[in-house]
Amino acid sequence: MLKVLIKFIFNLLYRIIYRVELVGLEHWDPSQPKIVCPNHIDYKDPLVFGSFIPDYIRFMAKKELFSNRLFDWFFRGCGGFPVDRTSNDIGAIKTALRFLKDGESVLIFAEGTRNPGLTPLPPKAGVGMIAHKAGVPIQPVTIDSTYKLFSKVRITIHPLVTLKYEGKPSVADYENAVLGILNEIYAHIELYKGRV
């Protein structure tokens, strides 16, 4: 019930303060568990995206956001779970794998942090590794906006990408695959260029 209420409130709020355009919804299959892989330009990204897609997803977020009881309650209510970005957080990886195996989708920012630029930061291998281990595809998403009051926010959902390897892939294999996905995501940024 909490997640439905939060989704409704933020959907209403963002409809008032932004002009949200959702592109490529035909690529979104609610029945398909997947790693959702967007670029990350602003702290509002997961809330904007989560409030406009047709179903409820989980998202990985830095552990600092869960630092007090109110924030912990709020972010978990939104579908968030913490990750320690300073180490290989095995607990967060296991949590993501569990959600995916249960049929849920998980949003992970492949760059690991916000990027104020127009080219991808070095990607983290985690997106590729988790997708491969869980046997799920990756859904690239471009979030494009200046996030100025009453500006347009364009969310572009790209076709699913399935990683296939012969033998055991290396960390570099995962990173290279994710970099290719990020390059495609960043190729569709137009509105945000006015902010940089």
H and E order: HEEHEHEHEHEEH
How many structural units, i.e. domains?
Answer: 1
Mean pLDDT: 92
The secondary-structure class comes to alpha/beta
Helix content: 25-40%
Oligomer: single chain
Secondary structure tally, helices: 6
The total of beta strands comes to 7
Give the end-to-end Cα distance, rounded to a whole number of Å: 39 Å
Shape: globular
Cα-based radius of gyration, to the nearest Å: 16 Å
Low-confidence stretches: none
Q: For the report, how would you describe the main beta sheet?
A: 7 strands, mixed
What percent strand?
A: 15-25%
Strand arrangement within the widest β-sheet reads: 1-7-6-2-5-3-4
Give an overview in words.
There is one protein chain. The protein starts with a helix and ends in a 10-residue tail after the last helix. It is of the alpha/beta class and 196 residues long. Strand 3, helix 3 (69-77) and strand 4 form a beta-alpha-beta unit. It has helices at residues 2-17, 45-52, 69-77, 90-101, 126-134, 171-186, and strands spanning 19-23, 35-38, 58-62, 80-83, 106-107, 138-144, 152-157. It is built from six helices and seven strands. Strands 1-7-6-2-5-3-4 form a seven-stranded mixed sheet, sandwiched between helices. The protein has one domain.
Element layout with pairings:
Elements: H1 2-17, E1 19-23, E2 35-38, H2 45-52, E3 58-62, H3 69-77, E4 80-83, H4 90-101, E5 106-107, H5 126-134, E6 138-144, E7 152-157, H6 171-186
Parallel strand pairs: 1-7, 2-5, 2-6, 3-4, 3-5
Antiparallel strand pairs: 6-7
Helix pairs in contact: 1-2, 4-5, 5-6
